[in-house]
Amino acid sequence: MTNIFVVDDNQLMRQQALRLLEQQDSWQVSGEAVNGKDAVSKYRDLLPDVTVMDFEMPEMNGLDAARAILKEHPNAAILMLSVHLPGQLAVEARRVGIKGACPKSEMWCLPDAIRALLRGETYFPH
Question: pTM of the full predicted structure?
């Protein structure tokens, strides 16, 4: 089973992601978090195969949470979700060590993006 951790402060977005992810055979959502701080504390217990994390969240944004997680777990596969994916955000995400990004307006890309990360590849839209 592939364990996926979903982090987003918006409950509707989390539910949409969960429905999409759990349609995939052998994938399960092993945990959820509502902000970056919550994600960092839960990550240690979950050690998911892939983390799908929103960029804009209260208390700690996705980039800062990814930095904290990757500091302790350098091989963590993190996929960033964002309403807007300007080029600068993608550049900064790569610099931090985030392996991929998907715009929230194209949630259908999540399965392909996650498969890429599971193969050890990156996934950034053009």
Answer: 0.94
Contacts with 19 (C-beta within 8 Å, 6 or more apart), sequence order: none
Q: In this predicted structure, what is the pLDDT of residue 86?
A: 62
90 pLDDT more than 70: yes
| 115's tokens | 């498969």
Instruction: List the strands of the sheet with 100-103, edge to edge.
Output: 27-33, 2-7, 50-54, 78-82, 100-103
Classify 57 as helix, strand or coil: coil
Nearest residue to 118 (alpha-carbon basis) of 92, 99, 103: 99
Distance CA 46, CA 5 (A): 8
Q: How do residues 32-62 score in pLDDT, each as one tens digit?
A: 999 999 999 999 999 999 999 999 999 999 9
What gap in Å lies between CA 24 and CA 8, rounded to an integer? 20
User: What is the fold of 2-118?
Assistant: Rossmann fold (3.40.50)
Q: Supply the Cα-derived Rg of the chain in whole angstroms.
A: 13
End-to-end CA distance of the chain: 30
